[in-house]
Amino acid sequence: MHGLSLRVRESFWFLPALFGIGAVALAELIVLLDRVLIAHGATQLWFIDALSASGGRSILTTIGTAMLTVAGTSFSITISVLATTSSTYGPRLVRNFMADRANQFVLAAFTSTFLYAIVVLRSVHTAVDGQAFVPVIAIHVAVLLSIADVAILVFFIHHIASSTQITSLQRQVQTDLEDAVREVYRDGTDSDVRVDPVELADGAWVLVGAHEDGYLQSVRWERLREWATSHDTVIDMTAMPGDYVICNDPIFRIAVSAALSAKDRAALVCDASALARAASMIGTARTPYQDVGFALQQLVEIAVRGLASGTNDPYTAVSALDLAATALVPLWRSGQPITAYCDGSRTPRVISHWPEAQTLIGTVFDGVQTYGTEHPIVVAAAVRLAERLEAAAPTARRGALLETIANLRSARG
Question: What is the model's pTM?
Answer without folding.
Answer: 0.80
